[in-house]
């Protein structure tokens, strides 16, 4: 979780289903380097992932699928109901996420670096380590309907996840920049083009052009 490879970096965040990945990929198309901490966390607990052995020894074989991945649905239910278990899982995952993120950032090549961090506003460390916070914002109703559709998840489950995240108002209060994603993806393009131009010039003046 360090950005020593560049003094200028963007922390991109937003609530579940707000459109972080969609927005990040559009910045990537324009030349930004992306480090997706959620994807890194997934890889760590995928089959053969660096966290699997520690998860197996802390939680038992029941939490590992036949294919060798962490059983995500089972673990989600377990840590939702048990704060101690959640801490234990975080103590396994967080150091690995930090080191993998640092490695990915050091290897990243692009005009500037964007870290995609779902819970950035909730983490003082991340807030300190990124130059600007970019929030992807949409209404809560749109968040709910996108996630229900994408994950075939019942409304109550989406609402429970949202309740465990920072509120929309908290995220907006932490934002340096905001992308509004209530409409179709075409409506994102001019917003992203304008911010990209701004970030390019900030990256140059902040000595980030050696990435
Ligand atoms: P998560 O926090 O769950 O990882 P996310 O914030 O990365 O989600 P995306 O995966 O980019 O969000 O978007 C959530 C879903 O909504 C996806 O299925 C995506 O294709 C869709 N989506 C995002 N933005 C739009 C849009 N402007 N119009 C239509 N669909 C969209």
Features:
about 55% helix, globular, alpha/beta, about 210 residues, 5 strands, Rossmann fold, five-stranded parallel sheet, binds adenosine-5'-triphosphate
Structure characterization notes:
With 211 residues, the chain is α/β, with parallel strands linked by helices. It has two domains: 1-32 and 111-211, 3-Layer(aba) Sandwich (Rossmann fold); 44-109, no CATH class. The protein is built from ten helices and five strands; from the N terminus they run E-H-E-H-H-H-H-E-H-E-H-H-H-E-H. It has helices spanning 20-30, 37-44, 52-59, 72-81, 83-107, 124-129, 140-151, 155-164, 168-174, 188-205; strands at residues 9-13, 33-36, 113-116, 132-137, 177-180. It has a five-stranded parallel sheet, sandwiched between helices. Helix 2 packs across helix 5 (83-107). It is globular, with a radius of gyration of 18 Å.
């Amino acid at each position: 979780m360090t950005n020593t490879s560049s003094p200028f970096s963007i922390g991109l965040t937003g609530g579940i289903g707000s459109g972080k990945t969609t927005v990040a990929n559009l910045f990537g198309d324009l030349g930004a380097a992306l480090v997706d901490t959620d994807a890194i966390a997934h890889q760590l607990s995928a089959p053969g992932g660096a966290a699997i052995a520690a998860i197996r020894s802390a939680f038992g074989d029941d939490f590992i699928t036949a294919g060798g991945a962490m059983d995500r649905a089972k673990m989600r239910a377990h840590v939702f109901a048990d704060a101690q278990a959640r801490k234990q899982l975080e103590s396994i995952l967080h150091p690995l996420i930090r080191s993998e993120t640092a490695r990915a950032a050091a290897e990243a090549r692009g005009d500037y670096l964007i870290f995609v961090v779902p819970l950035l506003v909730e983490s003082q460390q991340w807030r300190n380590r990124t130059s600007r916070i970019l929030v992807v914002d949409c209404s809560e109703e749109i968040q709910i309907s996108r996630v229900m559709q994408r994950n075939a998840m019942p409304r109550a489950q989406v609402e429970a996840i949202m309740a465990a995240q920072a509120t929309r108002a908290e995220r907006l209060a932490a934002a340096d920049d905001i992308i509004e994603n209530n409409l179709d993806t075409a409506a994102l393009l001019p917003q992203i083009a304008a911010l990209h131009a701004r970030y390019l010039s900030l990256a140059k003046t902040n000595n980030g052009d050696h990435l």
